[in-house]
């Protein structure tokens, strides 16, 4: 496998692993705060990001490269509010979109059309995930500190079906 492609895909593995890990921390925080719907949504998002990572691991290994599973960062992850959780989630998604675009750019530079084709799934997925994150954040901004609004928000996320947004590449 082309070394430059292998390196940039391994960088993408790290980005997906980091998303999964952060969303897990967010889910656990939300659960402790009593936001069970938000927690359910975030646990599922975390699982999906792990699937995105695994899809890359298998792709690299099957094509003769070597996937690198990154170590966990020792940085503490903490949140003070639901709004902060979803601000961080949105920023994460924007960063992941940027890094996917970089992979696609390098695929074209290296004329690796197989990997370019493989990455199109991520491009489409990321478009939806970023839009969803922006939408959720906008809603939270409207709700502000209104307790009734936050209650309904939590209930909405409880029933949110992310399968239409992403199925983790399965
Ligand atoms: Fe992996 O799709 Fe979002 O980050």
Detailed description of the structure:
The structure is a single chain. With 170 residues, the protein is mainly alpha-helical. It has a single domain (3-69, 79-162), classed as Up-down Bundle (Ferritin), CATH 1.20.1260. The chain has helices at 3-33, 36-62, 82-109, 113-143, 147-158. The chain starts with a helix and ends in a 12-residue tail after the last helix. It binds hydroxy diiron-OXO moiety (OFO).
Walk me through the topology.
Blueprint: H1 3-33, H2 36-62, H3 82-109, H4 113-143, H5 147-158
Helix pairs in contact: 1-2, 1-3, 2-5, 3-4
Bound molecules: hydroxy diiron-OXO moiety.
Hydroxy diiron-OXO moiety is lined by residues 16, 19, 49, 52, 93, 96, 125-126, 129.
Key words describing this protein structure:
single chain; 76% helix; binds hydroxy diiron-OXO moiety; disordered C terminus; Ferritin; 170 residues; mainly alpha; elongated
């Amino acid at each position: 496998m082309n070394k430059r492609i292998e390196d940039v895909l391994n960088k993408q593995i790290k980005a997906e692993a980091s998303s999964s890990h952060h969303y897990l921390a967010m889910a656990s925080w939300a659960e402790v705060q009593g936001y069970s719907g938000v927690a359910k949504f975030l646990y599922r998002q975390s699982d999906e990001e792990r699937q995105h990572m695994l899809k890359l691991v298998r792709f690299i290994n099957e094509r003769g490269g070597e996937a690198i599973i990154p170590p966990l960062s020792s940085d503490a992850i903490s949140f003070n509010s639901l709004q902060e959780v979803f601000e961080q989630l949105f920023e994460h998604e924007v960063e992941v979109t940027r890094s996917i675009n970089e992979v696609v750019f390098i695929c074209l530079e290296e004329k690796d059309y197989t990997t370019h084709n493989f990455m199109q799934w991520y491009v489409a997925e990321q478009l939806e995930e970023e839009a969803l994150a922006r939408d959720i954040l906008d809603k939270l901004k409207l709700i502000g500190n209104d307790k009734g609004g936050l209650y309904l928000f939590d209930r909405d996320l409880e029933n949110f079906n992310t399968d239409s947004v992403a199925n983790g590449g399965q």
